């Protein structure tokens, strides 16, 4: 899509889930563009100082009937980041309640945008999914990944019908500190950083050989902006977004422990192998394919934040806010 044209028209971009971990980073990224930016979330959405964009804040519970249609009224593009990641025991917990937002909201968007969209140029939807949704082994029914995969099908089917221009971004493991407020999410790096700062050992569920492609939240946000800018080229497909480089989790945990020790001045905590908990699943012990080369070729986007810098940002943010910072922005993609 194009931004402000010669006549000064600014497209309206609606961000659903703008108060979350990824959402706040996307807000910071898009606020630098000459657009009309509507930030939609159940909670309070942070707004950057002196934005280039015209910013509108809208508080709404998108799980309620009719609220999605109100939120996206007049939108040229929608960035769909809203998600429910379940309870505190495991971010992957999923049930009928989470399905209402994770899948039902996709249906709501198609209904709302399909009614009002210009048939010659349907509104753009960029949906952030998870890399597990594209695993060659189908996700276990009823899980978060399965719900994300179902939402992908809803949006891509609507694209094939000409109702919307849908792009799916399958993000690798997102971590880091959001540039707005410093939220660190509820991922593994944040959890381990909180433990390390508290002087607790870091539990490793396996031998450490499993790898994760760790994508800094700022790079995830710039990927969303790149997807909006290349929506006509990307629409109708799912794209893997990551660094393309896996990191052994024993080495990641060690780097977290080292960063925490440097921050606190205390001895480095130990990384200790433990038996996996009952809620662990098979995906925890596999290294997923995370090749982003197709997305890079289509958009020119590249990740820029080094792993060590991202880990240091997480440790620094949690040192300032305390362990509760790890839970901020819990509802995310």
How is this structure best described in words?
The strands form 4 sheets. The protein has a 7-stranded parallel beta sheet, with helices on both faces. A two-stranded parallel ribbon has the order 7-10. A two-stranded parallel ribbon has the order 8-13. The chain has 11 helices and 13 strands. Helix 5 (144-160) links the parallel strand 5 and strand 6 (165-171). Mean pLDDT is 89; it is low at 325-333. Helix 6 (188-197) runs parallel beside helix 9 (249-264) and helix 6 packs across helix 11 (307-321). It is of the alpha/beta class and 333 residues long. It has helices at residues 21-30, 67-71, 96-102, 104-116, 144-160, 188-197, 217-229, 231-234, 249-264, 293-299, 307-321, and strands spanning 12-16, 36-41, 54-59, 77-80, 124-130, 165-171, 173-175, 202-204, 211-212, 214-216, 238-241, 247-248, 271-273. The chain is globular.
């Amino acid at each position: 899509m194009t931004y402000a044209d010669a006549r000064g028209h600014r497209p309206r971009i609606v961000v659903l889930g703008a108060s979350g971990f990824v959402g706040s980073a996307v807000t910071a990224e898009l606020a630098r563009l000459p657009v009309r930016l509507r930030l939609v979330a159940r909670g309070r959405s942070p707004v950057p100082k002196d934005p280039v964009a015209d910013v509108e804040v809208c508080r709404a519970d998108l799980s309620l009937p009719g609220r999605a249609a109100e939120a996206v009224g007049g939108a040229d593009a929608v960035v769909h980041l809203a998600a429910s990641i379940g309870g505190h025991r495991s971010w992957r917990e999923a049930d009928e309640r989470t399905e209402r937002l994770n899948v039902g909201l996709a249906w709501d968007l198609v209904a709302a945008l399909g009614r009002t969209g210009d048939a010659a140029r349907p509104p753009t939807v960029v949906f952030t999914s998870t890399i597990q949704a594209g695993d060659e082994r189908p996700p276990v029914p009823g899980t978060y990944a399965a719900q994300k995969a179902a939402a992908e099908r809803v949006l891509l089917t609507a694209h094939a019908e000409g109702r919307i221009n849908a792009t799916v971004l399958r993000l690798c493991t997102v971590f880091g500190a959001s540039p707005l407020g410093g939220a660190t999410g509820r991922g593994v790096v944040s959890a381990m950083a909180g433990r390390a700062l508290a002087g607790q050992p870091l539990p490793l569920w396996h031998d450490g050989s499993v790898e994760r492609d760790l994508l800094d939240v700022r790079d995830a946000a710039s990927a969303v902006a790149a997807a909006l800018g290349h929506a006509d080229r990307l629409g109708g497909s799912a794209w893997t977004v990551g660094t393309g480089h896996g990191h052994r989790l024993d080495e990641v945990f060690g780097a977290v422990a080292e960063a925490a020790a440097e921050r606190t001045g205390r001895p480095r905590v130990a990384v200790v192998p433990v038996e996996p908990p009952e809620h662990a699943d098979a995906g925890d012990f596999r290294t997923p394919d995370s090749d982003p080369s197709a997305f890079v070729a289509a958009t020119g986007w590249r990740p820029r934040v080094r792993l060590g810098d991202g880990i240091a940002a997480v440790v620094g943010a949690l040192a300032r806010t305390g362990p509760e910072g790890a839970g901020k922005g819990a509802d995310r993609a």
